[in-house]
Specification:
With about 150 residues, this protein is an all-alpha fold. It is built from 6 helices and 2 strands.
Length: about 150
C-alpha cells in the first residue's frame, strides 16, 4: 500500500511515517519501480503499536528499546516491565505537579476581586512566583506543553 493509504488506515500524517522511518523505529518500505514507498500490513501493525506507545507518552528511545526487546519472544519481559514502570512513575509525578498547578490556579482565581487590571490579583500572582503557596507547580517538563 502507498504511504498515503497507510497514513489514512493508521490515523496519522505522512510526515509522521517518514519520521518514524528516519529515526529507525519503522522499517523502511520497499520501493516500486517509480520509487514510491510500498508498505505491508506488518508496517501498519507496527505503526499502530508505535502510535499507541506515543499516546502513553513513551519516548522514541523507549519505543525503540521495547521493539527490540519484543523481537525475541523467548526473552524475559523484565526490561519491558521496567520501561513501563518508569513511565508510570513519570505519569504519577506529572499528575502531582498538575494537581499543584490546579490548586494554585484555583487559589489565584479565587483571590480575584474583579477590579481593574492595575490591581489584578491574577496578574500580580503570575508576575511574582513568591506569592505562590503550593510548591508542586514548579518548573514543568517542556514535553508536557505546560510551563513553556
Amino acid at each position: 500500500m502507498s504511504i498515503g493509504r497507510l497514513a489514512t488506515l493508521c490515523g496519522c500524517k505522512v510526515q509522521t511515517i517518514r519520521y518514524y522511518e528516519e529515526v529507525g523505529i519503522l522499517p523502511p518500505a520497499r520501493r516500486s519501480g517509480g520509487n514510491q514507498r510500498l508498505y505491508t500490513p506488518t508496517h501498519g501493525e507496527r505503526l499502530l503499536f508505535i502510535r499507541h506507545c506515543r499516546e502513553f507518552g513513551f519516548t522514541i528511545e523507549q519505543i525503540r528499546e521495547m521493539l527490540l526487546l519484543g523481537g525475541d519472544g523467548e526473552r524475559s519481559c523484565e526490561e519491558i516491565d521496567r520501561i513501563a514502570r518508569e513511565r508510570l512513575e513519570e505519569v504519577k509525578q506529572k499528575i502531582l505537579r498538575l494537581q499543584g498547578l490546579q490548586a494554585e490556579l484555583e487559589r489565584i482565581i479565587t483571590g480575584c476581586q474583579g477590579g481593574r487590571v492595575i490591581t489584578c490579583r491574577i496578574l500580580s500572582s503570575l508576575a511574582d512566583h513568591g506569592q505562590c503557596l503550593h510548591p508542586r507547580h514548579g518548573v514543568m517538563d517542556p514535553e508536557e506543553g505546560v510551563g513553556n
